[in-house]
Amino acid sequence: MVKSEVILEIPFHDVDVMRVAWHGHYAKYLEIARCALLDKIDYNCLQMEGSGYVWPVIDLRIRYVQPLLFQQKIKVEAVLVEWESRMKINYLISDAASGKRLTKAYTVQVAVNAKSGDMLYASPTVLLQKLGLES
């Protein structure tokens, strides 16, 4: 399993009058962790496009367990759990100090041929190579 984590601090411009992060900003926090994960396997968005594929997110699910608060430091973990026919990444947002679980989520992405626009039903060889599963 490929895993990555980032530490973030909830900024003032992401919160409402109750100092709670607006729910729409959670996707941004997940995206930061996802980009760190893809960098770790040397297959970020620019490299994906260079390999002839784009990987749109087709599903995003978020389970809000506890609110994220202004100036709270959070740890966002991203774990690649599926890669054969799609990329599914699980996320866990926790309080950086206490480790308390705050949010669970996942995203699903599929490979699309950048030239034809056709969706692939199996992950391209380049992803498997980046994961060390093929030579």
Structure characterization notes:
By secondary structure, the protein is an alpha+beta fold. It has a single domain (2-130), classed as Thiol Ester Dehydrase, Chain A (Roll). Helix content is 20%, strand content 36%. It has helices spanning 26-40, 45-50, 125-130, and strands at 2-9, 53-54, 57-64, 73-82, 87-95, 101-109, 112-113. Strands 1-4-5-6-3 form a 5-stranded antiparallel β-sheet, with helices on one face. Strands 2-7 form a two-stranded antiparallel sheet. The longest helix is centred in the N-terminal third of the chain and has 15 residues, at 26-40. The radius of gyration is 16 Å and the shape is elongated. It starts with a strand and ends in a 5-residue tail after the last helix.
| Shape, per Cα inertia axes | elongated
Report the biggest beta sheet as strand number plus sense, adding barrel if it closes. 5 strands, antiparallel
- Report strand %: 35-45%
Class by alpha and beta content: alpha+beta
Q: What's the CATH class, please?
A: Alpha Beta
Order of helices and strands: EHHEEEEEEH
CATH architecture: Roll
Low-confidence stretches: none
Number of helices: 3
Count of distinct strands: 7
Proportion of helical residues: 10-25%
Distance, first to last CA? 18 Å
Quaternary structure annotation:
single chain
> Please, what is the average pLDDT?
96
The CATH H-level superfamily is: Hotdog Thioesterase
- Rg from alpha-carbon coordinates: 16 Å
For the record, the count of structural domains works out to 1
CATH topology: Thiol Ester Dehydrase, Chain A
Physical arrangement of strands within the biggest beta sheet: 1-4-5-6-3
